[in-house]
Design a protein that fits this description.
Layout: H1 2-24, H2 29-35, H3 47-53, H4 57-60, E1 65-71, E2 76-82, E3 102-110, E4 113-128, E5 131-143, H5 157-162, H6 173-185
Antiparallel strand pairs: 1-2, 1-5, 3-4, 4-5
Length: 186
């Protein structure tokens, strides 16, 4: 159990690096971001960010994470997060410095404490006449979350429902007892 907790930071970093490669493989990502208008007010749409998130290891491993998509002006256009709340306003603006991934850790408020987030982001660039033009930004956030370790029982019954379980195909001793008692009673 302790080795899993000790390795969690390295595993989160490795998962984010794989997710970066998987995001790069999403066809038409720049067009997807360009087609989405920034929200006027209120709730930020989740559909496009979920579409991207669901194609990565962030989804496969249920990592406490978020994908944020920003338009050319830097306005957020879509955000999907799993167990990672957003404390900023919908009017938040973000633009990466280049078309290459940049990875760093940042401190973010999380409830009454501060947590370290791994941030990976890059500009979404298109080639126009031999010149790269940034038409949006994608950001990945992932957090160390010790409650997601497999040996920690979740406080949320829905999380428990979707965690991997032993196979029910193998006949257990209890199954044999029930089957034996049914046969004996017949």
């Amino acid at each position: 159990m302790a080795p899993q907790a000790i390795r969690q930071r390295d595993e989160v970093q490795a998962t984010v690096r794989r997710a970066m490669t998987q995001v790069d493989a999403v066809a038409g990502l720049a067009d997807l971001v360009r087609s989405q208008a920034p929200p006027a007010a209120g709730q930020v749409p989740t559909e496009y960010a979920f579409l991207v998130w669901s194609q990565t290891d962030l989804a496969a491993y249920r990592l406490t994470s978020a994908i944020e998509l920003y338009g050319e002006s830097g306005a957020i256009t879509s955000r999907f997060a799993l167990n990672l709340p957003e404390y900023t306003q919908a009017q938040q603006r973000w633009q990466e410095g280049s078309c290459d991934w940049e990875v760093f850790e940042e401190v973010s408020p999380f409830g009454s404490e501060e947590r370290r987030l791994l941030h990976a982001g890059r500009g979404l660039c298109v080639d126009e006449g031999g010149t790269a033009r940034m038409v949006g930004t994608i950001v990945i956030h992932a957090m160390l979350d010790y409650s997601s370790l497999p040996f920690i029982s979740s406080q949320n019954p829905y999380v428990e429902l979707f965690q991997s379980r032993p196979s029910f195909e193998a006949e257990s001793a209890l199954d044999r007892d029930v089957a034996s008692s049914c046969m004996a009673g017949a």
